Amino acid sequence: MHELSIALSIIEGAQEEAERQGNAQIEAVYLRLGPLAGVVREALTFAYDLACEGTALHGSRLVIVDVPITFFCAECAVERTPISVQNMSCPVCGTPAAQVLTGAELEICALELQT
């Protein structure tokens, strides 16, 4: 389960930022997560809660912000959302997605701190 190693990295990054902010208490970690990141949301949430035990983040929340898949359709010359993850093509003209713009994110985007 690689979600545990991801959760540990999230905790490490959050702790480093909390130290830069004067050792503020972390209430919540906000994470941008796209469906192409290869992460199972429920497994990550479970791993995060498990990995927080015994750390300064114990009791904090992992708030996952879903990032939709978008791509640039060369045929239509606009940004589109694919038909599905399994069918990465334009819903209007059927052109396959060649340039994915969003949907692979796995990044901490904010921390909720209590000073």
List keywords for this structure.
3-stranded antiparallel β-sheet, 115 residues, elongated, 3-stranded mixed β-sheet, 2 helices, hypothetical protein PF0899 fold, 27% helix, 6 strands, alpha+beta
What's the helix and strand layout?
Elements lengths: L1 H19 L4 E9 L7 H12 L8 E6 L3 E4 L4 E3 L18 E4 L3 E9 L1
Parallel strand pairs: 1-2
Antiparallel strand pairs: 1-6, 3-4, 3-5
Description:
The protein has 115 residues and is an alpha+beta fold. 27% of the residues lie in helices and 30% in strands. It has two helices and six strands, in the order αβαβββββ. A hairpin with a 4-residue loop joins β3 (70-73) and β4 (78-80). The longest helix has 19 residues, at 2-20. The radius of gyration is 17 Å and the shape is elongated. The two termini are 34 Å apart. The model has no long low-confidence stretch (mean pLDDT 94).
Category by helix and strand content = alpha+beta
- Poorly predicted ranges: none
CATH class of the domain at 2-68 and 102-114: Alpha Beta
In N-to-C order, the SSE pattern is: HEHEEEEE
Shape: elongated
Summarize the structure.
The protein is α+β, with helices and mostly antiparallel strands.
